[in-house]
Each structure stands twice: as structure tokens, then as C-alpha cells.
Specification:
With about 300 residues, the chain is mostly helical. Among the domains are: about 110 residues, Orthogonal Bundle (Endonuclease Iii, domain 2), CATH 1.10.1670.10; about 100 residues, Endonuclease III, domain 1. It has 11 helices and no strands. The radius of gyration is 36 Å and the shape is globular. The chain starts with about 25 loop residues before the first helix and ends in a 34-residue tail after the last helix. Bound molecules: iron/sulfur cluster. Iron/sulfur cluster binds next to α9. The site of iron/sulfur cluster has 14 residues, from α9. It is an enzyme of class 4 (lyase). Belongs to the Nth/MutY family. One of its GO terms (molecular function) is DNA N-glycosylase activity.
Length: about 300
């Protein structure tokens, strides 16, 4: 019997092989769930728990000058390598006292209420700029009652040349209202009560307690903070830390006046950008590691 010629089976065209991405497994690339490795399946058939991702660490931001650790390198930001010893503290303050024998606040005021208002107005403004507006303000409103009657618009019109005048006008009227409602129109003599008043923070309360009531507080402003850290009078990385260090270290009978000595020394000699150590009366006892020399005389052209 003749044999039938075998028919060739049609071979389906072979699809070209898909290139497999090297970046991701094929299952992930197609969106399908990747199978677990056989030995990863638990005896009860369940999948092992997925490893948890570590939460991202918060970004590190540059610390502010006020809260950063004091620097011990050279330059105006350097601080004393240690705190002064008690005898050095006394000598340093005596030197400052000799430089500023009549030191007192440079703000103009006529009584406790006007002192409180002037200190509130002096936040982030110079004493000189505040002294330009307070005569007109205190003439128009010498008492809390008169300040409330003058109102925010009236106060604002008189203090417009100082920074943040809108907020300060609000605070001055509001604190006057609070004095009338809570303290019979009188300025209280405790830190807690003062800090409850509008616009009154720790430093303002300390100034009023020291200047108006003679209490041994040590208000720390930017000048005192800088001077205390540079000299070693009382080092600290925050205003409150410096305040506490100074309160502990300054003898009781020097506390009230030392505040004025330190402000004036910081403002006019131990300046922020470059301390003028060569003419500082306390340079021998000061522990600042980068004391400055007098500027060289500039050569004159012939
Ligand atoms: S010597 Fe005087 S001016 Fe210089 S850092 Fe000390 S306190 Fe400031």
C-alpha cells in the first residue's frame, strides 16, 4: 500500500521574546503580585509579614543662633571656654561699674505705667526711636484710662515711626484695659501678673521688676546675652539659661545695677559684629578667646 505523504503541521509563528527589564522583576513590571519564595510560606499557608519601612528621619535644620551651642572658635561668635570664678565675676562687674557710673535705662518715662509702656514699645526697636514718640504719647495718655480712651487708632497715629507699631498700639491699649480690669489701674509687681499683660514677655517683666520695683532680676536682652557668653560671666545657649546663670552668679547687691552696666557695655563696646576689646575696661578679666586689637590707622594719601 502506498503510504500517504505526511502532512506537515503548521507551526504557529513564535512571538518575539519580550525584553525583560533589568530594573524590576517581570511580575512587578506587569503589575502582577510577585510570588513568595517557597520556603517563605508559613506552615499554616500564610505569607510572612512584610518588613516595615523605617520611618524617614526628620530633616536636620540649622539651629538658630539663640538655641545653638555656644561656639568656642575664633571670631565674634566665640564664647568663653569656661564660666568666670566668683572673684572674677565681681572684678568684671566692678570694671563695668567704673565705665558706666551713672548707668540707668536710656528709655524716657515718668512713672511705672509709662515705663511699662516704653519697654513694650522698645521690643525690636531702638531706645532712641521709642524716646522720639513717647513724649507725645504720654502727653496724650498719661494713665491707663486715657490710653484706653485714646484707642488703637489714636495710639497708632502717635507711634507710627517705630517698628511693629500696629501690634504695639493694640498691646498698649489692651494692657491698659487689663490693668484697669485686674489691678485697679496699677502696674503689678510680680512676674506672673506682668507676663499676663498684652505684649509683656519675660524680659519686659524683668525690666519693670528691676527698674520700677528694685527687685534683683537680671533681664537678658541681645546685648547682655552676647556679653555674658563672650566674657564667661554666665554662659548659656538660650536667654533663659543665661538669665539663670547670671542670677546665680551675680552678687545680690550688684544685680539691679549690673543689668544697666551690661547693656551699655554690650551696646557700645562689646558690639555684635566686632567687640572693641582694646578699649574695654574689663579686658583683663574677660575670658573671650578672640580679643580684638585696635584698628590700624589708614595710610593718608600724599
Ligand atoms: S574684652 Fe570687653 S569687649 Fe572684648 S569680649 Fe570681653 S567684654 Fe567684650
Amino acid at each position: 500500500m502506498p503510504t500517504k505523504p505526511r502532512q506537515k503541521k503548521a507551526v504557529p509563528p513564535v512571538a518575539p521574546a519580550r525584553p525583560v527589564s533589568r530594573r524590576r522583576p517581570a511580575a512587578q513590571a506587569t503589575g502582577a503580585e510577585a510570588l513568595p519564595a517557597p520556603d517563605a510560606v508559613q506552615p499554616d499557608g500564610s505569607l510572612p509579614p512584610r518588613p516595615r519601612r523605617k520611618p524617614a528621619e526628620p530633616k536636620k535644620t540649622a539651629p538658630s543662633a539663640r538655641t545653638s551651642k555656644p561656639r568656642t572658635d575664633d571670631g565674634p561668635s566665640a564664647v568663653a571656654p569656661r564660666n568666670m570664678k566668683p572673684a572674677e565675676v565681681v572684678q568684671f562687674l566692678r570694671d563695668l561699674a567704673s565705665a558706666w557710673p551713672d548707668a540707668k535705662t536710656e528709655l524716657h518715662y515718668t512713672g511705672t505705667f509709662s515705663l511699662l509702656v516704653a519697654v513694650v514699645l522698645s521690643a525690636q526697636a531702638t531706645d532712641a526711636s521709642v524716646n522720639k514718640v513717647t513724649p507725645g504719647l504720654f502727653a496724650a495718655a498719661p494713665t491707663p484710662q486715657a490710653m484706653v480712651a485714646l484707642g488703637e487708632d489714636g495710639v497708632g497715629a502717635l507711634i507710627r515711626t517705630i517698628g511693629l507699631w500696629r501690634a504695639k498700639a493694640h498691646n498698649v491699649v489692651e494692657l491698659s484695659r487689663q490693668l484697669l480690669a485686674l489691678h485697679g489701674g496699677q502696674v503689678p509687681d510680680t512676674r506672673e501678673a506682668l507676663e499676663q499683660l498684652a505684649g509683656v514677655g519675660r524680659k519686659t517683666a524683668n525690666v519693670v521688676l528691676s527698674v520700677a520695683f528694685g527687685q534683683p532680676t537680671v533681664p537678658v536682652d541681645t546685648h547682655v546675652f552676647r556679653l555674658a557668653n563672650r566674657s564667661g560671666l554666665g554662659r548659656g545657649s538660650s536667654v533663659v539659661a543665661v538669665e539663670k546663670a547670671l542670677e546665680q552668679r551675680i552678687p545680690q547687691d550688684m544685680k539691679c545695677e549690673s543689668h544697666h552696666w551690661m547693656i551699655l557695655q554690650g551696646r557700645y563696646v562689646c558690639k555684635a559684629r566686632k567687640p572693641e576689646c582694646w578699649r574695654c575696661v574689663a579686658r583683663d578679666v574677660c575670658l573671650f578667646p578672640a580679643k580684638t586689637s585696635p584698628p590700624r590707622p589708614t595710610a593718608r594719601r600724599a
